[in-house]
Design brief:
The structure is a homodimer of 250-residue chains. With 250 residues, chain A is mainly α. The first copy, chain A, is built from eleven helices and three strands.
DNA sequence: GTCGCGGTGAATGTATACAAATATTGGAAC
DNA sequence: GTTCCAATATTTGTATACATTCACCGCGAC
């Protein structure tokens, strides 16, 4: 251990490995060598092993039958299922919140975030403050999950959100400069409002259906960046893992 | 490493620790000591650490803020949410299977398992072959999840099934000798048939709703063994983790 | 030329050693 | 008797050492 880098080695290993996978430094199918990584990251094999186990859980790595791991290859179907899964669990959280009831105060807190998102969006596509939007969108989704008041559901939601390209912020970096996908942000915000309203009125089925449909917005973005928008794909973290994605690497 | 126990140390650690938690050898709230466990299990700390990480993921252990783990305390609400979560993901798997279509051959294979379950159940409650029923029920649920043809969904289903008392076989050991809960097996089998039929007819919404309702059968069993059936609770693995459960320990 | 096989090297899985952090216990002061 | 503090002892987190297993490579036989 050196001088200033005494920050928990495990965290360094996790972030370092995750970045190397998402940026494509480690190509799909590559075997991840513990010793090489430990050397590069300046930590020992032990925290590297723990980080690898975590990323296997998150679906970024795949255990090889013989031992060791390789960078997992994702198909479009995998990402689609991940998005559907996220929508389903967000839907569960919203349904439970609606059915079990949520104190008005916490709903008001959600409204406050939504008002700020309105501010960040601005009147038209040219005035969007993207940095703020991304943060606020993430905060809203986290708050929404919390409304279920269920640690079990929340933990599972965190898991599926961590899956590559399945989270609610997965495509925002790419949408920033592309008017085509920008419009969907207004639709998304409408979903947000309707979901909170449904929970407030104890409409469980409506809240669930809305949450699912909301997640499916990501499907359009996925196909855009896998197809005609491929030249902007390098802005989408992790899309290089998808088999057939044409990412222009530096 | 000794003579014959050269079986993968990690597996030994995982099973040993899991058993100690489920049987209550390690009481709820106890700090799990790595060194003590390593000594007792005859392995080193390394595989013990990995096993602990895995059980944290499964929800049997809880990380302490200061470091290390303790046996997690479950509330009834936690188990209820776990069951609801399992039903939701099984529902997703069934809906996807119905919507995307499944070759008739694989549905026939499910029918075959169901026929065997009928055989194990017998004509009345007195003739039930429980050993067979448990195995076949687990096989059916696994086959059902597989119909979705989605590795992502299947993996998540495996996860929630591993959660304490959330799996489809969690209460079967207890139901064996109690006529009261035995009747629900016939209801469960009716659900099984209806789910396969719904998938065969591409009725996604129906398949999903049935799968959810099917999981909720476990709720009745949970409350039975937490209440009037408490004296049979020692047959339910893991129920000692639930705060307020009155398990008569040996 | 292709297939099979043995050897060598590297990689993982496991065990142990070390250091920083934390819990505990004993004692002293109030 | 209670509370605070300090010294000790244990615990975790990390690093390294060891051994078994796996993979790759070259060589020989068919």
């Amino acid at each position: 251990m050196a001088e200033a880098e005494k920050k928990i080695s495990y965290q360094r290993a996790l972030m370092g490995l995750r970045e190397r996978i998402l940026t494509g430094t480690l190509a799909v199918g590559d075997r991840v060598s513990e010793v090489a990584l430990a050397r590069d990251l300046g930590v020992s094999r032990t925290p590297v092993r723990e980080a690898m186990a975590e990323l296997v859980e998150q679906g970024l790595l795949e255990r090889m039958p013989t031992g060791g791991c390789m960078v997992r290859s994702l198909t479009r179907a995998d990402v689609v299922d991940g998005i559907e899964l996220r929508g389903t669990i967000e839907g569960l959280a919203c349904r439970l919140a609606a059915e079990r009831g949520v104190p008005e105060m916490r709903l008001t807190a959600c409204d406050a975030i939504l008002a700020k998102i309105d501010g960040a969006l601005g009147p038209g596509s040219e005035h969007t403050d993207f940095e703020s939007y991304m943060q606020l969108n993430a905060r809203f989704h986290q708050a929404l999950g919390g409304l279920s008041d269920s640690a079990v559901v929340l933990k599972e939601l965190d898991r599926v959100t961590a899956m590559p390209m399945a989270g609610p912020s997965a495509f925002l970096q790419g949408q920033a400069l592309i008017p085509q996908t920008l419009r969907s942000l207004f639709v998304a915000q409408d979903h947000h409002r309707a979901i909170v309203e449904a929970i407030r009125h104890r409409e469980g089925a409506r809240a669930e259906a809305l949450a699912r449909e909301h997640a499916r917005l990501a499907l359009r973005n996925l196909d855009f960046f896998l197809g005609e928008g491929a030249r902007h794909a390098e802005r989408i973290p992790g899309i290089s893992l998808v088999a057939g994605a044409k990412v222009l690497e530096a």
